[in-house]
Amino acid sequence: MSLIPVPSPAPPKRLAGIGVGAFLLLGLLYPILGPALPLLSEQFGLRATGASLLLSLNSAGAVLGVILAGVLSARLTSRNRSLLAVATLAVGCVGLAFAPTFVLALLAALLLGSGFGMLDLTLNVWLSTSYGLRSAAMLNLLSATFGVGAVLAPLAVGFADGDFRLPLLGCAALAGLLLLSLFALPSAAPEVYTPTQGLQTEVRSPRLILGGFMCLFLAYVAVESGVASWEVTHLRDTLGITTGTASQLSALFWVSFTLGRLISAPLALRVAPAHLVTGSLVLAAFSLALATIPAVAPYAYTLTGLFLAPVFTTGLVWLTRVLPGGAAPTFVFAGAFLGPVLFSPVVGAMRDQFGPPAIPLTLMGIALLDLAIVIGLRRNL
């Protein structure tokens, strides 16, 4: 399926402001479950395998949100879909902060994921059609606030000594401000929804190639979210530090990730996308192997953020060159969010069975799997 949006009549400056706030909200929420896992595990008496269900339900909700964004595109405008997504995020934040039982915490995690997936796809498509030739530049600029949010979230949990509730309520408050800003925007006609455009290309077996890219992004998001979700647990158990201190150290992953995005922009002008993605995954696998050494684990995770940073954005450029059109990115977004659904329980089970070192080793294995997928794609293109 694909989305072909009608440009919004919203004033660009006002829409840009909403984009800044929305990407900041997405960045705050994306890594927050990781620092929250230790306290949630203690609160509900969970082992790592049980805690991983929160991550899986959150990612399953993101897949559902992406699908809803596509289905509702023919009936609701980008503004109205964003309103629904942000409202869902606000309810999920409050629900997880005050969930009295594990079942309700799972439901809140599902709502958070649904709102995230819906807002992520809607926002990217909306902004990519609202600024003409400047759309790509605006997207790169505005999405930088995602990295800022991803840095602030673990720091906020760390300063709260591992308590994730106040940061979640802060996200709910930001969502409330976004709702007010979205209500002030004029509405527009719903986007045209076409299920197959963009798959007619000159490559051999385009559906097979699309499946390969979906697996590439699925495995990549499993690694990225795996570090975000399990680094705090690994550092706390390995180094014997508090959850708050481990959360503050985990923020370095997102600092280097944001820096990596800035570095990869000029680098992508000189290196072919397929080569840059390949090299990045090789280095990321190496740094995750280093994370098994307790003395260097915080630094190794920091390097992992730097190396992973180019993969998603550069991979999308590669994808659109191989399969131009609107359909492929939509399928890839939906497939990518399945990564944590499939692999978070694996990481949790490996940690329960073999101890804390299994966390970076399992993530390294997923990174190597992703590398193998990339090599397979390159040989078939």
TrEMBL record:
Ranges that cross the membrane: 15-33, 53-71, 83-99, 139-160, 166-187, 208-230, 276-293, 299-319, 331-351, 357-377
Molecular function terms, GO-annotated: transmembrane transporter activity
Record's keyword terms, sorted: Membrane, Plasmid, Transmembrane, Transmembrane helix, Transport
Location in or out of the cell: Endomembrane system
Keyword Iron recorded: no
Membrane topology reported for the UniProt record: Multi-pass membrane protein
Residues covered by the Major facilitator superfamily (MFS) profile domain: 15-381
GO cellular-component term (any): membrane
Domain of life assignment: Bacteria
UniProt cross-references to Pfam families, sorted A to Z: MFS_1
Keyword Secreted in record: no
Family: Belongs to the major facilitator superfamily.
Protein name: Putative Major Facilitator Superfamily protein putative membrane protein
Organism of derivation: Deinococcus deserti (strain DSM 17065 / CIP 109153 / LMG 22923 / VCD115)
Lineage: Bacteria, Thermotogati, Deinococcota, Deinococci, Deinococcales
